[in-house]
Specification:
four-stranded mixed sheet; alpha/beta; 2 domains; Ribosomal Protein L15, Chain: K, domain 2
Length: 291
């Protein structure tokens, strides 16, 4: 089971030897077995990697994220083919009926709003939590009345103040965007590993977004990032704050009645969504619960 999040900082050389990731930094050499790695984040532009290592990482379906000179997630490595039966999976994805896509999307948004309401209730924002519960009850097919948008406004204003907007340049938004970027990458990994295309979404349909499907599926998991950022309430966003969000993937949640790391919960949830879409049965959806 892959569970480790490996972050490489500073000047280093990465290569592959006998199923191990080998990290060489000055006089220090570290090794991690590839089977244990779920996410490899290259946080520095002073890191060099061998082609042999990159090929083996893709074979093991390890998510690799590259950061820019500001240490922000910039790009990721994805294999062309994530599953032996990718061709049939793509045919199924293209022919999913609009009715089941709409129904699954509605359930995903309903779950996101439920989790936001739960978070507000835990923080003693009772009135706002009640408003989100009501928005959830008013949710129509494909969220035709934009209950998600109304809920988001109430939610963020309660957590971060009435003057807060998601477009503002501050440390809170920097932390949220960084965390969401990491979660998005995890969903891209699972979509590709399962043989589907990240570009073809259920609701998101932006011609400039290569990750429409992941943008759909990640919605309920955004609240995990929100919780972390609220607890941090960062006055600055630097390395310490970034590490808090990176290691969020190794927190535990409950799914299928068992405790799992967040990155494994993403895998279980994604496969349940694929099953629901292929079988036309939303009862197959499996959402996580906070521990």
């Amino acid at each position: 089971m892959s569970w480790r999040t490996v972050v490489v900082t500073g000047c280093a050389k990465l290569d592959y030897k006998m199923d191990y990731l080998v990290v060489r930094k000055q006089d220090q050499v570290s090794r991690v077995h590839l089977s244990e790695i779920g996410l490899l984040m290259i946080e520095s532009t002073a890191v060099s990697l061998t082609a042999a290592l990159l090929c083996e990482l893709m074979k093991k379906k390890v998510k690799v994220i590259f950061c820019d000179e500001q240490h922000n997630p910039h790009s990721e490595l994805l294999p062309y083919y994530g599953s032996h039966d990718t061709s049939i999976k793509l045919k199924k994805q293209i022919h999913w009926k609009d009715s089941i896509k709409e129904t699954v999307w509605t359930e995903i948004i309903a779950e996101k709003i439920r989790k936001q309401a739960q978070h507000l209730a835990e923080k003693k924002y009772t009135a706002q939590a009640d408003m989100l519960v009501q928005y959830g009850k008013e949710l129509e097919a494909a969220d035709a009345t934009n209950r998600e948008g109304h809920a988001a406004k109430v939610y963020f204003n309660a957590l971060f103040g009435m003057n807060f907007t998601r477009s503002e340049g501050n440390s809170i938004n920097a932390a949220l965007n960084y965390g969401y970027g990491i979660i998005l990458s995890c969903f891209n990994r699972e979509i590709v590993a399962s043989g589907y295309m990240t570009q073809l979404g259920l609701f998101h349909d932006n011609m400039f977004n290569q990750f429409n499907f992941a943008s759909d599926l990640m919605e309920p998991f955004r609240v995990l990032v929100d919780r972390k950022v609220v607890d941090m309430m960062p006055a600055k966003f630097e390395r310490e704050e970034r590490m808090e969000l990176i290691y969020l993937l190794q927190d535990r949640v409950e799914i299928e009645g068992k405790s799992n790391f967040v990155n494994n919960a993403v895998k279980i949830y994604c496969r349940s969504v694929f099953d629901a879409l292929n079988e036309g049965d939303i009862s197959l959806l499996k959402f996580y619960k906070n521990k």
